[in-house]
Amino acid sequence: MRTEVIEFNKTQRKKMIDFRSGDVVKVYRKIKEGEKERIQIFEGMIIAIKGKQSSSPMITVRKVSNGVGVEIIVPIFSPGIKKIELVKRAKVRHSKLYYIREKAAKALRFKFTDKSEIIKENEEKTIKEKPEPKKRNEKETDNSEKNNK
User: Fold this and answer.
1) What digits encode the pLDDT tens for the residues 60-107?
2) Domains delineated in the chain
3) Which residues contact 95 (CB under 8 A, 6 or more apart)?
4) Cα separation of 55 and 142, whole Å?
5) Confidence of residue 108 (pLDDT cuts 50, 70, 90)
6) How far is the CA of 25 from the CAs of 99, 127, 134, 141, in angstroms?
7) Which of 27, 50, 85, 117 is packed most tightly, with the most Cβ within 10 A?
8) Share above pLDDT 70 across residues of the chain, in percent, rounded to a whole number
9) Residues 6 or more apart from 53 whose CB is under 8 A from it?
10) What single string gives the DSSP state of each residue in the chain?
11) What is the pTM of this model?
């Protein structure tokens, strides 16, 4: 993809949300029934993310309800989505988890991390990413003083 297109798509995004496949999320969707509007919560696991570099990436969320698998494909920045809340994160190795469709819920044994642990990790990353001001060595300052004389 051209870099200009990627830059344009980044400017069109509302905010970047760091979702991965294997995350368990709650999707708060606005639903209109006649003149009334209500919010419905859909909680499930993200099995795929499409269009990460586009202006509106889409996630596929799957849950099992009454023994029947239900999937929705949600554009992250859609006006019909009030918010997407991260519940927990599973340790997975694939970016697309389509193999989950054939497996029973009990057969899936993921190692989950809690939401509070994820928040701590993100805070630590932001602290590490901040660049520290460069300190001059004593040798460098001595050499610059000698050159100035």
Assistant:
1) 999 988 888 899 999 888 889 998 988 888 888 888 888 888 776 665
2) 3-132 (2.30.30)
3) 21, 48, 49
4) 52
5) low
6) 19, 26, 41, 54
7) 27
8) 66
9) 1, 6, 9
10) --HHHHHHHHHH-S------TTEEEEEEEEEEETTEEEEEEEEEEEEEEE-TTSSS-EEEEEEEETTEEEEEEEETT-TTEEEEEEEEEE--S-S--GGGGGS-TTT----EEEHHHHHHHHHHHHHHHSPPPPPPPHHHHHHHHHHH-
11) 0.65
Structure tokens at 84: 């997407």
- List pLDDT tens digits, range 126-138: 666 555 555 555 5
How far is 60 from 47, CA to CA, in rounded Å?
6
Question: Amino acid identity, residue 54?
Answer: S
Distances from the Cα of 89 to the Cαs of 26, 110, 111, 118, 139, in angstroms? 12, 9, 8, 8, 49
Residue 86 is encoded by which pair of tokens?
């991260």
The type of residue at 15 is K
Length of the chain (residues): 149
Structure tokens of 105? Answer: 């819920």
